[in-house]
DNA sequence: AATGAATGAGAGTTCATTCAT
DNA sequence: GATGAATGAACTCTCATTCAT
């Protein structure tokens, strides 16, 4: 069996090792406070290797964003397109994003805190994908409102931002060693959303 | 007659000018991306002046946090201690924090994004004040739950984090030139909270 | 009496010390082969000091160019505007540029070898000043041709480039410890020019 | 049928492709500003291929020098050894070096600008060949002076440097799209030399 | 109260070259 | 013959902070 050191320098390919190290460090101390030197040391490689695979430090961040965005969009699409009543689909999607976010809390911390360190061009691209995600979620709310199962008291856009605020906030307060499991938190937060939407 | 330039170098005292410049710049480009040189240039003073009034760049950030925390705590205390039914007091407090946050969107952006740039000691202090704020808000929720006017389905702590997530999130999506006034947003968000708490 | 060390760190102002060190090093090993570290070490200061006075390494080069261009233009203007027959004025100007170039052989070596390392914007500016110099010199030749004292067999532009080629070339072959004094070289080269222009 | 891309990756042997790419790039942006990566990309090969054929980046430069030196020496020898009066032989040689230099303007630009980038050992070798060339040319001048057809007012060495200065300078000002053909420039410059040498 | 020259450590990035395949 | 991953040293430039004035 493979020797697994701190930097995992045994088996995992170098690019993955670098991404993993960068993710951990960016989440811990922030993008700007993490030096390229820190990353390569954590990954057990040299700077040259990093720049062989990534064009810049910024590229690493962009890769992390891509990974998160792809995952969340796929999961949302799956839940939203399921064959179930809209209340169920919204509840499932709302709970799932919580579970997935907690499972990747480092990614989430980076996501909301470090967006602005991306180069303008990459930021634009990330925002576009983000908007697509938001719109798919909003469509679910609107569908329920049109069907009369959700209150129309609040604009759907605001409802989505309300819920995502709480997801965004998770990395601020959630601790794996706390008293609630990810699933419990997810159920509670989805419940709050659905209760708020009762007509 | 006071000369009033871009940096407001005419009338406003130097410390305030520096804080205002720092707030704007920290919100715009982040704490680490803002150099001390940027701040003093924007404030129309020299580095020596900054270090005369503030011990370090970190001190500026701490001052901004102090200002926000004091303001929010005062307002929360006033609403929570008012003479009104608990539903009303919670609704008012929940709406007020939204209005106040939008009125100081730069402060809010800094608050959630730059906390980790504080020195460990100052961070501890800020977190303690933050906790006090959270607890006062939670006490309101618990009071309503005990009185039977709020559902007990969700732990009060989680309810508070749910709402503050949405406040936190405001700096991400709210634009002053958008279609909703701060008061409208505040009313909607407070309404969502209260609706979610219906028994 | 002032202590005069290798880096002249006693009396001369820092910017001058840096320019002198940069000039020597750029001439010796070329702009690209000279590191900022080399320059500050030779000048006996730190990198921070260099960047306090000069915006970039490129700026140092530009300063050197400015110094050369100003000097040569002033001298050419003085000789060209003198009160003497055109043959005399051209001979004097042609000889003087040789003497001055030999007196500043480092500047000359840098001038012709490192122009292309300037930023595009600064290069444009240098070329414009260079052109002005060329034109003043050409005007002298044309004046003599019009007066009939110089042959018109060769276009004036080409005559100027012919002479400046030889000036340019000085830094390639002239050695202060050689057998000719700067003045002797200057007289010979001016003589060659004037003889070539005989009608 | 051979695929002929930008890098001419179809037919031309790899070493030639590399030399051609290096010549163009060195002339364009200078030796130090051209990376090995740039060269192999322009030649459509990989780094390994370059290091298979050339021992170092420096070797490429040396090859370019060798090519230029060989060509010029051969041509000078041919003209100098021709059966014609010395005035004619000098005129022909002086004009030919101009035409040949213009025909290989990239080589010329590299020659005079990048000599100092050669390793000390190779530089010594190049200088020796250069000296041989200079001496053959000088011998022509001396022959004419001894025969009384050239003025002895100027030392022959200086006459040679005078002319080569103008050749050196060509890459600074000559533009193929200008108003003079290479032959016209060559005739004018040779004429200036011969006129200067009139007794 | 305020200046601004100077520091020194460290930032992100580039690059010629090597070597196992 | 040729690859391309990886190295390690060097590069230009930035920055918070200090201190003599």
From TrEMBL, chains A, B, C, D:
Residues 12-72 form the HTH tetR-type domain. InterPro entries: DNA-bd_HTH_TetR-type_CS, Homeodomain-like_sf, HTH-type_TetR-like_transc_reg, HTH_TetR, KstR2_TetR_C, Tet_transcr_reg_TetR-rel_C_sf. Transmembrane segments: none annotated. Gene3D superfamilies: Homeodomain-like, Tetracycline Repressor, domain 2. Residues 35-54 bind DNA. It holds the Pfam family TetR_N. SUPFAM superfamilies: Homeodomain-like, Tetracyclin repressor-like, C-terminal domain. PROSITE patterns: HTH_TETR_1 (PS01081), HTH_TETR_2 (PS50977). Keywords: DNA-binding, Repressor, Transcription, Transcription regulation. This is TetR/AcrR family transcriptional regulator. The lineage of its organism: Bacteria, Bacillati, Actinomycetota, Actinomycetes, Kitasatosporales.
